[in-house]
Amino acid sequence: MVEEVSNDSGAAGNEAAQIRELVKQAAEPEGFRLFELNFGEGSSGSGHWISFILDPAYPTTGPSIEALMHLGRKVKSTLFEHHIRRVP
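The structure assignment produced for this chain is given below.
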């Protein structure tokens, strides 16, 4: 089960729920269960920020950093494929 912390104040309820579900679908198989989702205005307009919360013991080796980068690309791609209007 994926857990998340969320600040939906800047997003429509349906959009926030859809983003949360898409992030869960992308993150759970990769083993990342906790994330924070925030909405607001960025330099390019309305946006959202997704931060994965890691265990302090999470390794900082090349392969583990690459796993995080892969997850970021996967989440971003999934959101674009589903026509999320906010810039990730």
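Interim note for the steering committee: Strands lie at 3-7, 34-42, 45-52. Residues 14 and 68 are 27 Å apart (CA to CA).
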